[in-house]
Design brief:
Blueprint lengths: L2 E5 L7 E7 L2 E8 L12 E3 L5 E2 L2 E6 L18 H12 L4 H16 L3 E9 L6 H12 L5 E7 L10 H11 L3 E2 L9 H17 L3 E6 L9 H12 L5 E5 L8 H14 L2 E4 L1 H7 L15 H6 L3 E4 L16 H11 L5 H5 L7 H6 L16 E4 L4 H6 L4 E6 L2 E5 L9
The structure holds fe (ii) ion (FE2).
Length: about 425
């Protein structure tokens, strides 16, 4: 196959034909009319007036823990803390092959839903860095389906875990693409602050991206985002830095947020919200009223800050559901964040495509433009709104010009 006809493109009116050669988009042509469906041919795909977009993106997931829920015990309370206990039990069973096979299985779930770009956090608070070494192999082995960015993620802290700094440094030397952090989990506020300075310096010296689990708590006094943003501003690294979760922002008062947003805009960093995971894990110390436990997604968006949605977990000790479908997360996120207004519905795919690509700094490797990779996804609807309303799907996924996924929708006939 080397062309696609009758495609609708986001932000442009009318129908388009796309051609590609050697894995790169070679032509984007506006059609004056609907072209007749081709004879059955392997060369042309008829989009039938449906949306064709660049691939869906999963910018925050934990592939090293995926598909372990219930092994050996289920998280019965559903809390973050029991999740940590259950993971400690499962961790004793982890092997190199176990990590790799679960990661590959999960990547196939993601690819089956039109995702071709994935950022996974990998726990490096392990003296042997076993999960990281397994994931570095997976990154190469999975190239036919996805591009994988690996975050060196210090689950148990950088400053408050033995040799935490050395493990982070070694993870980067071994090939981690992104430097992570978890300042709110460090033992003291001072350690949280110094961990941010350490990780930003490590990333700058080794030319890596940054994605920090930042203020993932309902505690309104957890204020490491201001530290991350200030270091980002001073070093001019905004395009390369992401703050994940920032759920404490949902509990900050408005006076503090007003000051904070001024800094966030100066810093220009990106944000990732994991709405299904956060509404499940946060709010656990509340009776009623019960907080939603999410960051301020619409407010960040209205302030022209880059914000996107992610899955975080798929069937692990912290979150028992998930099937790889980021459109399910978009649906939930828009509901939870009060974002079902008309204007948001018209462009809601931004939060699982372009915004996520910006957070991952995919740059020229992403988007429907001549000369860029022929990575294209045909959706089952003609617009963002209709896709959301109908709970639509990715029907075809094309990667470097080759079809890697086709989905056939079920048919319903009413009498
Ligand atoms: Fe996470």
């Amino acid at each position: 196959m080397n062309q696609l006809i009758n495609a609708r493109l986001r932000g442009r009116s009318g129908l388009f034909s796309l051609r590609w050669a050697d894995g790169l988009i070679s032509a984007i042509t506006a059609q004056t009319d609907t072209l007749p469906a081709p004879e059955i041919t392997n060369a042309t795909l008829d989009a039938g007036g449906k949306l064709v977009i660049p691939p869906l993106v999963e910018p925050h997931i934990h592939l090293d823990a995926a598909l372990t829920a219930g092994e050996p015990h289920w998280n019965l309370s559903g809390t973050l803390f029991e999740g940590i206990e259950r993971w400690a039990e499962r961790k004793t069973l982890v092997t190199h092959e176990d990590t790799k096979s679960r990661a590959h299985h999960t990547i196939r779930l993601l690819a089956a839903h039109g995702i071709q770009h994935v950022r996974t956090h990998v726990d490096v608070t392990d003296p042997g860095l076993g999960a990281l070494k397994a994931m570095l192999e997976v990154r190469d082995e999975a190239r036919a389906l996805i591009d994988l960015q690996i975050v060196a993620f210090p689950q148990e802290g950088i400053e408050s875990f033995a040799n935490g700094r050395a493990l982070m440094t070694e993870a980067v030397a071994l090939g981690a693409d992104v430097v992570g952090g978890i300042p709110h989990f460090e033992n003291t506020r001072d350690q949280g602050v110094s961990s941010v300075h350490f990780l930003m310096d490590l990333a700058e010296r080794h030319n890596r991206l940054v994605d920090v689990h930042c203020d993932e708590t309902d505690d309104p006094n957890s204020r490491f985002l201001e530290v991350l943003a200030e270091v980002t501003r001073v070093h001019g690294m905004g395009a390369r830095v992401t703050a994940s979760h920032t759920t404490a922002m949902g509990s900050y008062d408005n006076a503090y947020c007003s000051k904070l947003f001024r800094l966030l805009k100066q810093a220009g960093l990106s944000f990732i919200s994991c709405p299904t995971e956060s509404i499940h894990l946060q709010g656990r110390f509340d009776s009623y009223p019960k907080r939603r436990g999410l960051t301020r997604v619409p407010e960040l968006d209205r302030a022209d800050l880059n914000v996107c949605f992610a899955q975080d977990s798929i069937v692990d000790p912290w979150y028992p559901l998930g099937n790889g479908n980021i459109l399910r997360i978009l649906d939930a996120g828009l509901h939870i964040c009060h974002m079902l207004g008309f204007d948001d519905l018209q462009r809601c795919l931004d939060f699982v495509t372009d915004h996520s690509a910006q957070a991952m700094a995919l740059d020229e490797g992403y988007g429907i433009e001549v000369g860029r990779p022929a990575n294209l996804v045909l959706l089952s609807a003609e617009s963002d709104y209709e896709l959301l309303r109908t709970q639509g799907h990715a029907l075809v996924s094309i990667r470097h010009g080759k079809v890697i996924m086709r989905r056939t929708m079920g048919e319903v006939v009413l009498a």
